[in-house]
Amino acid sequence: MIVAMNADATQQQIDHICERIRQFGYTPHLIQGEERTVIAAIGKGDKKEHIESLKSADGVEDAFPILQPFKLVSTEVKKERSVIKIGDIKIGDGGLVVMAGPCSVETRDQLLTTAESVAKSGAQLLRGGAYKPRTSPYEFQGLAEEGLKLLAEAREKTGLKVVTEILNAEDVDLVEQYADILQVGARNMQNFELLKKLGKVNKPVMLKRGLSATIKEFLLSAEYIVSHGNPNVMLCERGIRTFETALRNTLDLAVVPLLNELTHLPVVIDPSHGTGKRSLVPPVARAAVAIGADAIMTEVHPCPEQAWSDGPQSLRLEDFAKMMADLQPYIKLRQQAAAAA
Amino acid sequence: MIVAMNADATQQQIDHICERIRQFGYTPHLIQGEERTVIAAIGKGDKKEHIESLKSADGVEDAFPILQPFKLVSTEVKKERSVIKIGDIKIGDGGLVVMAGPCSVETRDQLLTTAESVAKSGAQLLRGGAYKPRTSPYEFQGLAEEGLKLLAEAREKTGLKVVTEILNAEDVDLVEQYADILQVGARNMQNFELLKKLGKVNKPVMLKRGLSATIKEFLLSAEYIVSHGNPNVMLCERGIRTFETALRNTLDLAVVPLLNELTHLPVVIDPSHGTGKRSLVPPVARAAVAIGADAIMTEVHPCPEQAWSDGPQSLRLEDFAKMMADLQPYIKLRQQAAAAA
Amino acid sequence: MIVAMNADATQQQIDHICERIRQFGYTPHLIQGEERTVIAAIGKGDKKEHIESLKSADGVEDAFPILQPFKLVSTEVKKERSVIKIGDIKIGDGGLVVMAGPCSVETRDQLLTTAESVAKSGAQLLRGGAYKPRTSPYEFQGLAEEGLKLLAEAREKTGLKVVTEILNAEDVDLVEQYADILQVGARNMQNFELLKKLGKVNKPVMLKRGLSATIKEFLLSAEYIVSHGNPNVMLCERGIRTFETALRNTLDLAVVPLLNELTHLPVVIDPSHGTGKRSLVPPVARAAVAIGADAIMTEVHPCPEQAWSDGPQSLRLEDFAKMMADLQPYIKLRQQAAAAA
Amino acid sequence: MIVAMNADATQQQIDHICERIRQFGYTPHLIQGEERTVIAAIGKGDKKEHIESLKSADGVEDAFPILQPFKLVSTEVKKERSVIKIGDIKIGDGGLVVMAGPCSVETRDQLLTTAESVAKSGAQLLRGGAYKPRTSPYEFQGLAEEGLKLLAEAREKTGLKVVTEILNAEDVDLVEQYADILQVGARNMQNFELLKKLGKVNKPVMLKRGLSATIKEFLLSAEYIVSHGNPNVMLCERGIRTFETALRNTLDLAVVPLLNELTHLPVVIDPSHGTGKRSLVPPVARAAVAIGADAIMTEVHPCPEQAWSDGPQSLRLEDFAKMMADLQPYIKLRQQAAAAA
Asked: Of A41, A282, B200, C326, which cross-links A26 as Cys (Cβ 3.0–4.6 Å)?
């Protein structure tokens, strides 16, 4: 259930409510709004008598059940949009953040060339996989820690922050040392042990939607991370698996405004995996900006023909530069709308 | 195969090539480009010896096979984009055309109120179903000819052109008298007899993508209409059926640039059926404009709560007006891009 | 709603109830059970006061609402299984009926050779398409009436009954003259005008499930036919469209017992379209018998390599003979179970 | 590539070929057939010159490339069916093995009651989850090691072997101590780190197909386990996610014979998750036997209404007993066919 405190509720009153919530068998989560404190009491079955009892406590304005199966991530519990800060970068504040880089970290030269170029074109984060989840055991599995070190070097050189994928709960400590955002791939969206570990991490997490995950399942996976202690989760739509094989995946762009209704978490769009086809990335990125995505993530490679993975969907350096230029007027429209609101 | 004539080929030369194409067992289709005439020779198996033979004929610049299974609708056969004219309205010229109106024509008052309002807000075409394909035999099946007459009256009053659905080959003659665009619904995308009849009609056709139709099947259904004589076909993406049930359908927006690569036919987006949810229609329409759709079609009703069908996805009159205002800067960006190109 | 009459209700009482049902604005459908007459009153909204009023009428045992959206085809309205008779053949009586033959009627020789062979192997019905719904306008579209005549000739020669596809409402009169069962293909499952016409026909209809049709939609399409007057409908599962492309379709075999719970109509399984692969047809047919299908339909061709359509999924004559022999013990198990029940 | 040795090849010759394979940069895997030894050389790109070179070596009968992306699990590499032995139980030898038990291990009483009953009815393995992958963080997550201990106790009491799910690479050592078969759930089918660890385990693994996994992906996940050292893998089809929501999943039964063509690994069918509906489990189990599944796994609970998970799809103890009795004639048909072959 949700307990909304009065605007002038005292710390003592808040503590008391948390105590009572625990007595009833729920876990209290404090959400500090600009005006007031809200306490989400998470547990099985919002019992009517508990709600009634809390309603009449001192300092409480109102108490009511949470209808959605996802709780902490829902707009029922927190209406204010979450803004995730990575240094100076803010994801979720109305602006557009761009993440770009190669599918896999392959070589020092490949990574630094790409990083310098995308930084110049206006990207704020560098992507690149050091651990690669590959369908076949015979495919390139990533450079592991060596790749992480190269990402850190590129960050040093370019000022770009780093987002990179984590595959296993066991690697959390290591990857956390190098990455600014920890990415959970589509195939791991329901790797619940990994999600629980990421709930203990002090870095933002980007959770990609599973290939056949419903929106409800997607948000419940985010709930795993948040309920285990890490509120800095962003959701990434990267295309779902459907009957259509003309493109690699079917990008479900309409979920951006749908998620904005259901959750306060920021939403990222990945037009590269969403289409699997280089020429479609720029128009799809344009649509992502127009529909209100908080960030986009695109794959960029100095020479896609020679990429060790995902070549057909990787932009060339100059493609990315052109796309960024083309996106500017759309980004401006967003800023004007945000300023007007 | 395709036979590209010289820019200065004579009519006699063109006739001669058509004659030889027929002798080889193909059907010739003339495509009059701005610079030159191209002849598409359609038939089973592009035989190498036929291509070689035509290459050396007078007036022929080149001859080559068509690789795609769809022929006349493909950009292999015609690179120039098709522009469909309905009175002063042009669909496919780089601008954005807006079609709006109720799901079903219900009453004179409902239709005229809607028509006047959407016209004022900037729509160019009025939509409204007189024949309704309903999942259950016990649901409202449409007003039939009475509905068509009301649509004609609304056109008279507002200057809006009319787009309406046709369900059966038998109704073509009747519906053609009233409609400016004949719409083929998703459930009829592979009603091949209907498609063949629409190939003989002198009105443009809007073909909606089937719920589980691949892009190849979609284009082959368009090919049915075009190969039977009617080149004025536009394609409408309205959402496909996937595992996701959070929304009515999954709108496959990335097919807009994909179709632009594969076909010269204009592309329409239907954000109403594509989402099934009123609040998502405006942001999705914005994305449709940004990604390059030639037209959008949205359902509008004076009182969606009382609509006889599709209420939850219908915009109120004022919602539509607001959406149209919000779309203006995005439409301007399109016009600037078109002017620059 | 459903009105169950007393076992000894008089004709006059039944007529009176039908009259009252009409006065209330519903349409009465009489279902003559072995013990009693049941009247299904179909119309919008089962009003409580109407149900109460009818409950107290003479000759009425009980009256209650129909919960499913499909009415006449549901087991709520009729518990007894429907048995469809075509001459001596009974579909739905617990036994297994086998339909076999080529995808398309190609030549007299091809059809007669196949018919004689499958008859000898134990098939009871001959399948063969005279009208072919083809994805591309450039593919073989069927021999039309000439094909129907060949089917009739094969029936004459072999005693096999004939099942063949009907594509258009306009062809109903013609096809009805030749066919013993009229087949509605997957792409026409929601061609509602065709369904309505087939409701007026005095021949059984086999309705194939659409590629992306839910079970509810499937049964509502059957309801179109039954509610327009033709109770002799059988349902054919032929595979649905999913993300999996290893096989042509995903055969949804579990719907056989599900349909048996929801409807009294017989269920047919098509392992040929359900898999698209010849070698899988016999094991899948075996599973169809084991799971309780009332009939199976398989494609058979004297020389699949030369078939004009569906070669890869067509059994050779000897494959079919072998499959029929292998199915015998499974058919016997069914008969024993039916006898025991 | 595959190198088939002569029937009388010496150990020295085999060692020599393995050595050469390593020199070429491949990894050799020995497959000991009844008649001859086959060496699968796994690595990137089967180079023609390597194949030619090995062909002419002493003791080699033939060498040829492996066409499928999955290698060690494919029938290209090993034609003989793999039989997995768990004590006296053989999975893959033509007979039918039955695994049954509750979704989750809940209490000692629940587990022992179920185990004794299913053992009496003829099951050979007991299933039961101690670690539960749950969509929501607020749902029951399993009893963990306490559950494993109860499973071991039930094994002791009933003689049933134990199959249980493993969620994380970190738990492998623990679960291995208790389980006879380690189960990888659908959501973990592409948890590649877990698969690699299971490649080092000395217990058989049952790999469940992912909700949207293609057959190729399914076999490549099995390849991960086998190529890391564990050949005892069985594949479990448990239903895929499609547009159809009438049942929990769409059980893809036709993959049983398809997998039998592609791989030598045994195939298990799970009618409980495949349908999600108790009443459909027995007919679907019957079909699974008829189509050739090597084993079936069904959920059974003493009181499904009170089950902590999966109640609607769990059989009651008496349902399971009845199903087992009904399956007997179908199992006999299988044995007769196996004896005849």
From this structure: A41
